[in-house]
Amino acid sequence: MATRLDARGEVTGPACCPTGLTTPLDRGTAESLARLLKAVADPARLQLLSLIKSSPNAESCVCDLTVPLALSQPTVSHHLRVLTEAGLLSRTNRGTWSWYSVNDERLQELSALLR
Amino acid sequence: MATRLDARGEVTGPACCPTGLTTPLDRGTAESLARLLKAVADPARLQLLSLIKSSPNAESCVCDLTVPLALSQPTVSHHLRVLTEAGLLSRTNRGTWSWYSVNDERLQELSALLR
DNA sequence: ATGCTACATTGACATTCGTCAATATAGCCA
DNA sequence: TGGCTATATTGACGAATGTCAATGTAGCAT
Fold this sequence. Notes:
The structure is a homodimer of 115-residue chains. Chain A has 115 residues and is an alpha+beta fold. In chain A, 44% of the residues lie in helices and 13% in strands.
């Protein structure tokens, strides 16, 4: 049984029964898993995940993130986009603010795939 | 309590009690965690890990890996080096052959850090 | 309407990364 | 010794990545 992919070829499937790395990965599966890992494999994005996870209500707006990251606002927006496109963050707009929250299931799914 | 680092500033510590991402990461910790994740965030290297893990005796020599990866021998050696330097692979030389095996504890440690 | 605030997008740039051909190293065997 | 095999290293190149300044968009308040 291979690692499951959704219609776009992205890694998905339930966290209950991952194949992990115990079976040889074909190139395609390896590429979509790598795309997901690349989204996390950056210091700024790891900081973002940890900051959002540990903030009140488990959500943050961009303006609260640029200072602790010591990066420009466009750069922070860029990283948030990468994480969102990878399915690791969700965005909700309230007025002028964008609120980001961590998709925990997706993160644990990723964690499980490394077994 | 922060994520533990060894003398070189690399992510280490027991798999028993990781902080994961539940606490804000400082830049230095995030950088060393990202270094470890970058080593895994590549399709060829994911294939390598899965191939070595699922091979007889859970070890492989380079010559058995270039064909399934469809990459040149120098490129495969390069990826093996990246994984080895990240502590995810161990190398043993027997005669002319280099045998690589997966450091499973290190991999599970990484998996645990994503909680 | 005007201005302000929060955020996204674009364009440019330096750096890093993945890859291969060529070459080097080193063990084994006749 | 010489030649063969397995692996590592070097150098080069295009592609991808992280960053910022400048600009665009959109909601809110006066």
